[in-house]
Amino acid sequence: MIPDIQQTVTRTEQLIQDEHDVILQTYKRPPFVLVHGQGVHVFDSTGKSYLDWVAGIAVNALGYGDKDVQAVINQQLATGLIHTSNLYHTVPHVELAKLLTEKSFADRVFFTNSGTEANEGAIKFARKVAYEKGYHDKTELVSFSNAFHGRTMGSLSLTPKEKYQTGFKPLLPAIRGAVFNDIESARAVINANTAGVLIEPIQGEGGINVATPEFLAELRALCDEHDALLIFDEIQCGMGRTGTLWAHEAYDVKPDIMTLAKPLAGGLPIGAILVTNEVASAIQVGNHGSTFAGNPFVTSVAKHVLERLSAPEFLAHVREVGGYLQEKLKSLTHPDIVEVRGRGLMVGLEFKREVDPIIQAGYEHGLLMVNAGTHVIRFVPPLIIEKHHVDTLYDKLTLILETF
Ligand SMILES: *Cc1c(COP(=O)(O)O)cnc(C)c1O
């Protein structure tokens, strides 16, 4: 059936009005309504297609409408078990945790429902480890300039952005800040009172900032010297995004805790806290919990997603297309372009000007793009994206930039 255009337009306008009236206005959304997706494209209610460089903010690693993901979902639905609570044994969360520990430094896993919850758990675990060792004042947590760790009180306290924190204080006490990639500033705040140091090996929201190898290595040494835990937030940069399964594989450094979320279950809500046995030994029955987390539905899908994203050919594809993306973006000529940076399919294009108008113009040209801070366009597409999609992006961006 061909949809009546006038009816579609009226329904779309009505929906946008309703959104404005009944949804808490914490997001400013563009004036179209997405109704389906396929591969690396999404389609709005008028049938217009958009090439997706956002992937639901680095979530939809396998794109849209993936047949194998749908099959796993259907298989799990057929068991009747979406949720059982963590009171009982089920199969999928154990299988997922086995796979995660086989493929990482970690020995054990705690599942959560989101990234911020994973970081909340990591904060608690870091304090508990210090407590169990008999320290009394070892409660401080360190994070870095331009970090993003989430919106709940603990992770917000470690996200030093005025715009996010204003109006919500007092935040957690015992939080210290240092400058990203500045080891002297880290040395000034990491000491005997430090329980944990939280860092994104490649910062996402803060502008696609890549940690230097020396910086991460010296942070590891500082943490060892002061018996503090090194916590990597790989919620955005992990799970193959940068062309290795974990972003920190490109460094010769291992954390004590790693947090994951965004793409782990192909768009279903999940987070995970991966820990060493040493950390795990400080956590006992009753110390932490969640009603929904690790449910059989979400973890069965996550297991499938992890198997796919960790395949060597898949990671090679991310490196190849990511390299091509950086190359093409570097060949854009515009006087306002400052720099192209990133790794794999996590790439930032920094401008001297604010990028929001460029992103808005992208919608007209059928491109979904997202900012990372005010001056950087962030490219975090589905990892299945191909080189010819990069060419399409390049052509459209060239046209758009002619008008700026
Ligand atoms: C998105 C993100 C978070 C928060 O995850 P939510 O699922 O939105 O709570 C934390 N850290 C990093 C690096 C992120 O990109």
Summarize the structure in words.
The protein is α/β, with parallel strands linked by helices and 404 residues long. The protein has two domains: 151 residues, Aspartate Aminotransferase, domain 1 (Alpha-Beta Complex), CATH 3.90.1150.10; 243 residues, Aspartate Aminotransferase, domain 2 (3-Layer(aba) Sandwich). The protein has 14 helices and 17 strands. The strands form four sheets. It has a seven-stranded mixed β-sheet with strand order 4-12-11-10-7-5-6, sandwiched between helices. Strands 1-2-3-15 form a four-stranded mixed β-sheet. Strands 13-14-17-16 form a four-stranded antiparallel β-sheet, with helices on one face. The longest helix is centred in the last third of the chain and has 19 residues. It is globular, with a radius of gyration of 22 Å. Bound molecules: pyridoxal-5'-phosphate (PLP). The site of pyridoxal-5'-phosphate (PLP) has 15 residues, from helix 5. The site of pyridoxal-5'-phosphate has 15 residues, from helix 5.
Instruction: Please state roughly what percent of the residues sit in beta strands, choosing from under 5%, 5-15%, 15-25%, 25-35%, 35-45% or over 45%.
Output: 15-25%
What is the CATH class of the largest domain? Alpha Beta
The percent range for helix content is 25-40%
Q: Biggest sheet, in brief?
A: 7 strands, mixed
Distance between the termini: 41 Å
CATH topology of the largest domain: Aspartate Aminotransferase, domain 2
- Tell me the name of the CATH homologous superfamily of the largest domain: Type I PLP-dependent aspartate aminotransferase-like (Major domain)
Say how many strands there are: 17
H/I helix tally = 14
Across the major sheet, the strand order is 4-12-11-10-7-5-6
**Number of structurally distinct domains:** 2
